[in-house]
Amino acid sequence: MPTGLTWIVLILLTIVASQAANPSHLVRNLPGQPQVQFKQYAGHLVVNASAQRAYFYWFFEADHQNQTSQPLALWLSGGPGCSSVGAGAFGEIGPFSVDISGTKLEKRRNAWNKAANLIFLESPHGTGFSYTNITSDYTIYNDEMTASDNLQFLLEWFRNFPEYSKNEFYLLGESYSGHYIPTLAMKILENNANGKNIINLKGFSLGNAWTDPAHDMRGDVEFYYSHSLIPEQTYNELIQNCDFSTMRPILGGSMNPNCQGASAITNRLISGLSHYNIYKPPCKNGSSITSQSLHTNMLVNAYNPCDDKTESYLNQRSVQASLNLASSGNSTNSWKLCNSKASEYYQASDIIVSMLPLYKSLIQKKLRIWIYSGDADGVVSTLSTRSWIKELNLTSQTPWFAWSHKDKVAGWSQAYNGLTFLTVLGAGHMVPLDKPQQALSLFEHFLKGKVPPSFAN
């Protein structure tokens, strides 16, 4: 992490507003990168000067002939503590993926920067290359702190990239971003109410979002039973003995011994599957990055792929130099896909707090809100999401229908007054990973504010 003179220079670069993109953050000579027409920027921006916290971002211009007029979007991966660069950019929607050797990049056919300018932010501190120089911060994580830092990042980012201040701006994410995104959206609206440094927020889109444990956890139990993964007796014991409103994914945190017993049986019965897509086998690699052990927060494990190639690539000194990363002494910045400490120390009461009151407020603000769900996810199931949407008691605008991609059923959808819900057929917890074409189509329709076409027999 930067110290001394390097830290002073970093602050100065952050607070000096320019009339164009910060040239010091331009990514040049990225090792193994195929030739592209768009520019990219990366580096640290200070989010809290007194605590010396700085967040790392990677910005990709839209791969589009009208790049400057395309929307701008911020992607936040969940966890808490999983990298938006590793999971979001390289794993799902960015313009590049890491090849099998871990040394070269390949173009992604269905990259979302074909439709928008994309920022990937590593948040909160301790995630990826983001850091704090206050050691005690590494044991302090909560939704309020994360949202405040994320807002400060955006304000600093727009000071460095003022040419994007008028572009339509959207928030994107999945999993525990079900907390990050609504809390940040509210922070942005509160900031805009002051009349200064207005962020042109138009809406947000979330996939398989952890939202309300009472709905999310009971929905998972219904999902397991409806897919014949657990017997009726175990299902009944879970329903009768578990207070789902106090539980973490999957079925963790209960103090009721009968609930604990039924939860243990459930986890044993589904252990031969990937919890994140029940039609896939779990990773069998024994490394700390790839094993699918049951953590205290299963949302972290969603970002443990079956290989370590992204970690290998981002830990190369030449790559880090291209990403404008300052090093301390002769050591490089150590990058991991997920910071387990962020999950371990994240405020427990925040993980189980309901986001529904925030949704009710945000819907009143007339934001475009799209919620999508891979229907094979066993961590935040489609039944979970449908349950909490029902509790919002919204007026239906478009009846339930099958939406299509390339003349095939891609999922189902229903539009409400203030929110649009879509499922993605055969996708798991990370929709763009499992169904990249359908995910890009969904994103493009979201930006246009138009539901995808219905399937015609």
From TrEMBL:
Keywords: Carboxypeptidase, Disulfide bond, Glycoprotein, Hydrolase, Protease, Signal. This is Serine carboxypeptidase-like enzyme. It comes from the Eukaryota. InterPro entries: AB_hydrolase_fold, Peptidase_S10, Ser_caboxypep_his_AS. GO terms for molecular function: serine-type carboxypeptidase activity. Residues 1-20 form the signal peptide. One of its GO terms (biological process) is proteolysis. PROSITE patterns: CARBOXYPEPT_SER_HIS.
